[in-house]
Amino acid sequence: MSGHPVRLKDLFNTAVIVAALGYFVDIYDLILFSIVRVPSLRDLGLTPQQITDQGLLLLNVQMFGMLLGGILWGVLGDKKGRIQLLFGSIFLYSVANIANGLVDSIEMYAVLRFIAGIGLAGELGGGITLVAEIMPKETRGYGTMIIATVGVAGAVLAYYIVEHFDWRNAYFIGGGLGLALLVLRVSVYESGMFNAVKESKVERGNFFSLFTHKERFLRYMKCVLIGLPTWYCIGILVTLSPEFAKALQIDGSVAAGRAVMFFYLGLIPGDFLSGLLSQLMKSRRRVVLMFLLLNCAAVAAFFLSNGSTADTLYGISFFLGFSVGYWAIFVTNAAEQFGTNLRATVATTVPNMARGATVPISIAFTYAASSFGMLAGGALIGILCLSIAFYALYHLEETFGRDLDFIEQ
User: Which has fewest Cβ within 10 Å: 40, 151, 209, 368?
Assistant: First the structure.
């Protein structure tokens, strides 16, 4: 280990706890909508075909809200502070969650999913930015590890709650959990690095400056592109697991919701282990490389599972989730790559840009599947996503232990 000792008060300070619980509720809400989509739309009187069509519309509206929210919260975080970003996002998606439990029309549902998407976009990037700036540089990876590991467990709670409550109460519970977090705000302090930059005349939170400087733009895009395999796995392989199961002649019925649950169950130990290894190995890049290689093996196992059982495919879904457990390192790396005057903007937009990449990935998959068949097309898109991620990682600088007290000129 580095010379700086690992102290419990560093790992479990209020900022880490609030950021971790905030991301927990964030993931709860994100996954909750996928779980209750069918029963909630059925209760609103939609036909099976309308449930499919309108459900896709609501997902797209939420995704657009997250893309927009990533920019809005990032700019706010760099202009007004990490605390305002963190708690503004918690408040917005909590209120939207509660309102989601009161919807009586598809139009109102769409508006509220858009608002919820905006709120959900800021939590992870804001939390990691704050924790990265207030913790000692040698141990901040432990803090971001805790945030991601605790946060992903929110998906498991969402499944548990829906098993015991109807969809409206599940939304109320999520909103109540978020609002309860705001009580902890009084004991969370702003980042000293941000306060120092705030007192200067340095321009902060200029999102467009990421695209007007070649080196900065390439650095930003490489941060985004190493996240492509995550959304290929969840957006294509796991979400469409029932269709893939038929093509693979899987013995037994495969439910997409159950596959998603196993995927997120795998993410929990994956996030924990990647964060721990990055500290022990003193490297972000080497750990991401290890997990990308694991992801290659998981994707290969998925496409080689022909004739196996549904339980085997669920096990592979767990392995897929574990292998993309570098999500915490992915966002931490993005935060560490950029100066204090752009750090929140980058850390909130990078994960949402990666999520948004699900759209072009799905379009590419649709084209490939129609040209080469579902299995060959799916494998081809997987190879493409992984190749891009390896290339981006190869050209990224190591950021472990980097002093973050610098600005982008």
Answer: 209
- Residue 320's identity, in one-letter code, is L
Q: What is the DSSP letter of 251?
A: B
Q: In this model, does residue 1 exceed pLDDT 50?
A: no
CB atoms within 10 A of CB 5: 10
- Which single residue is written with the structure tokens 């893309």? 67
Alpha helices by DSSP H, 44-122: 48-79, 82-100, 106-120
Confidence of residue 7 (pLDDT cuts 50, 70, 90): low
Q: Give me Rg for the CA atoms of the chain.
A: 20
Q: Is residue 238 located within the same domain as residue 178? A: no
The tokens of 55 are what? Answer: 């459900």
How many domains does the structure of the chain reveal?
2
Domain match, 178 and 259 both: no
Residue 34 in domain = yes
- The three-point CA angle 181-186-192 to 5° equals 110
Residue pLDDT, tens place only, 311-346: 999 999 999 999 999 988 999 999 999 999 999 999
CATH assignment of the domain containing 91: 1.20.1250.20
Q: For residues 156 and 170, what is the distance between their CA atoms, to the nearest angstrom?
A: 13
Question: Could you tell me how far CA 374 lies from the centroid of its own chain?
Answer: 26
Q: Which residue type, as a one-letter code, is found at position 279?
A: Q
How far is CA 152 from each of CA 42, 59, 64, 172, rounded to the nearest angstrom?
28, 20, 22, 20
Lookup: tokens for 251: 């013995």
> What stretch of H or E contains 244?
helix 241-247
CA distances from 296 to 233, 301, 302 (A): 11, 9, 10
What is the chain's mean pLDDT, rounded? 90
Query: If you write DSSP's letter for every residue of 310-362 in order, what string do you get?
Result: HHHHHHHHHHHHHHTTTHHHHHHHHHHHS-TTTHHHHHHHHHHHHHHTHHHHH
Residue 278 or residue 48, greater confidence: 278
Domain of 246 in residue numbering reads as: 228-323+357-396
User: In the 8-state DSSP scheme, what is residue 146?
Assistant: H
pLDDT per residue as tens digits for the range 354-403:
988 888 898 899 899 999 999 999 999 999 999 999 999 999 999 998 88
